[in-house]
Amino acid sequence: MISNDRLAHAFVEVADTLVDEFDLIDFLHSLADHAADISGASSVGLLLADHDDALHYMAASSAAARHLELFQIQHDEGPCLDCFRTGAPVILSDLSEAVDRWPAFAPRATEAGVRSVHAFPLRLRDQVIGALNVFGEEPLPFEPDDIKIVQAMADVATIAILQARAISSAEILTEQLQGALNSRIVIEQAKGVMARAGDVTVDEAFTALRAYARSHHLRLVDLAHDVVIGKVDLPRP
Amino acid sequence: MTTPYGGELGWHSRYSDARARILGEDAGGHEGVAGLLHGLCSNLTSTLGVMGAAVNLMSDSGSDGVAAASDDRCRDVDELQFTTGEGPCHEAFAARRPVLTPDLRSAAVRGWPGYAPAALSSGVSAVFAFPLHVGGVGFGVLDVYADRAGSLRSEQVTMALTYAQIATEIMLDGALTTAEGDLEPGLSTALDYRAEIYQAQGMVVSDLAVSPAEALTLMRARAFAGDRPLIDLARDILGGYRLPAED
């Protein structure tokens, strides 16, 4: 059902996106388009969970798919939700069989012209971060091999998303850490400068620095930096 | 948060076993980052059967302090990279890849005229530096020390890389700073030993009207020339000793 050519093309494009400047939303839209293309589905939608495990709409290959994803979130029901909770794929070739399972979603989707739905978890080992929804306008049987292929695309997406998050989290962290490390260093250096210039102990120098910072409404680290680079000549402590 | 290093099953089970050993010992979740990193260094040392390991926090200007080590001796050895301004951690951090030096006596370490002899005098024959980073974002280096010259076996390198990954995870998941922007207390205590060096550095800045970087260079040169530990020189400076200007 899924052609090797289109599949190869899709994977190459996805890989290109990963290597270039990574834009998450761009990547997810591209992934949704490729998944729709290679599976022959009419459209694809994608949901991601935040830190509190609440699902959010992220991307879709059509406005109709977008509406169906939002609908699932609003009504807390549907293939993406089931998939996210269980971490297992949901394969349903004929939506008319699902009215009991999704009493709100099934009729809504049928109205929108959907006849089949499949959902694939975005998952790495025991961590499920979202779900990929595939919609077909005809009953769309998914062979086991087809399932594996779309799941593989979802797996690639998961790794990319987690890595992007890890990098951005690391960037914030390292900024905070560096800030804290640098301020300690410059404060110790400033104590030394003042202790020598004022012929006092480092403790007395520190007291004088803090007092000056307070009375002049300066951050201690900023004052310390100016002392070390010689921009400020404090009165003798 | 799980860092995404999928791949062959062997890697993953090694990772989770090592991770369970290190983090499992902290059942109550009370250990700060410094404590966890210390546990990691001890664990790695016994797993690899080496002399010791240490975690060096780094930035583009060099080492900001040894956050943890398997023992005090290894902390002192790791600190040599700061006191001399030389050593594998700088390249490992900058290039974000391991720097393996199986024999500190060999010709290849001619780039470390201060560091190599000092490390050898401390009983170290080989040093292997593994950067701690997420993509292009670096935090520091995990240094592994051996008292006998010789390369690590490939499974030892793989194990060290696994531990570097766990150390990175410990840093990413731990609280490194407080809401006020200060260092987490355990980490702050671990790095306190540098205070005297930075204070002395400030004194040299005042005495000689030089930049902090120049002051540190002069201090390192004077310590090296006198074959003394940098901390001893720093304490002399704090006691009133005035470093002569460069001649």
Structure report:
The complex is a heterodimer of chains A (237) and B (247). In chain A, a hairpin with a 5-residue loop joins strand 1 and strand 2. Helices cover 58% and strands 15% of the residues of chain A. In chain A, helix 2 packs antiparallel against helix 6 and helix 6 (144-198) packs across helix 8 (220-228). Chain A has eight helices and five strands. By secondary structure, chain A is α+β, with helices and mostly antiparallel strands. Chain A folds into two domains: 4-170, Beta-Lactamase, CATH 3.30.450.40; 171-228, Orthogonal Bundle (Arc Repressor Mutant, subunit A). The longest helix of chain A has 55 residues, at 144-198. Chain A has helices at residues 4-19, 24-39, 63-75, 79-86, 105-111, 144-198, 202-215, 220-228; strands at residues 43-49, 55-60, 90-92, 116-124, 127-136. With 247 residues, chain B is α+β, with helices and mostly antiparallel strands. Chain B folds into two domains: 9-176, GAF domain (Beta-Lactamase, 2-Layer Sandwich), CATH 3.30.450; 193-238, Orthogonal Bundle (Arc Repressor Mutant, subunit A). Chain B has ten helices and five strands; from the N terminus they run H-H-E-E-H-H-E-H-E-E-H-H-H-H-H. Chain B has a five-stranded antiparallel β-sheet with strand order 2-1-5-4-3, sandwiched between helices. In chain B, strand 1 and strand 2 (62-69) form a beta hairpin. In chain B, helix 9 packs across helix 10 (230-238). The longest helix of chain B has 20 residues, at 154-173. Mean pLDDT of chain B is 89; it is low at 1-9. The chains are: A alpha+beta (237), B alpha+beta (247).
